[in-house]
Amino acid sequence: MQTILKYGSGLLRKKAIKYAKEELNSTLHSFIQEMYNTLEEYEGIGLAAPQVGVSKRLFVIEYSGIKAVYINPEILEKSSDIVEYEEGCLSVPGIYESVKRPESIKIQYLDEKFIQHTEVLNEVHARIFQHEFDHLEGLLFVDKLSSLRKNLLKKKLKKIEKNEIEK
Ligand code: NI
Predict the structure, then answer these.
(1) Which member of 7, 68, 86, 138 has the greatest number of CB atoms within 10 A?
(2) pLDDT for 20-50, tens place per residue?
(3) How far apart are CA 135 and CA 6, in angstroms?
(4) Is 119 designated active site?
(5) CATH number at residue 23
(6) Is residue 2 part of a domain?
C-alpha cells in the first residue's frame, strides 16, 4: 500500500520530473493502478505522484464518471474567469478552504499509452486538474490562501507538520 506524504514533507515541495518515452512499461502501469487503488482507499478525487513519494509528473483523477491519468500534463491556456471553490487535499488532512482559480483551462497531456491529448476542461474537472498540477510544481492549495486565512490555520498546519516529521 502506498503511504500519502503530508504537509511538512520536503518531497511535496519539489518540482516533479517529466516521464521519458522509455518509461512506458509495466512498472509504470502497475504504478498507475496502485495510484487508483490508493485514491479509492482514501475516497479522494485526485492524487499526484509526489503525494505517494514519487517526484514524477503524473496524477490520477476519479470523479463523477471521469477516471483518467495525466502524464507530463501542461496547462496551455487559462480563462480570465476566476471562480472560488472549496478544496481539500489528502496531504493536508482536515483542512478545507475556498481557493480562487481560473474557471476553465486548455490542457495537454499523455495518457497511459503515451498518446497525446489536448482538451478544454471546465468547472470541477478544471479545478481538480489545477490542484493536482500544483502538486507537480511543489505547491499546495494552502499556499494560495490569504495571509489572514493562513494565520488562522497555522496551528492545524503545525500539527500536521509535526506528525509528518515524527514518523
Ligand atoms: Ni492535493
Answers:
(1) 7
(2) 999 999 999 999 999 999 999 999 999 999 9
(3) 12
(4) no
(5) 3.90.45.10
(6) no
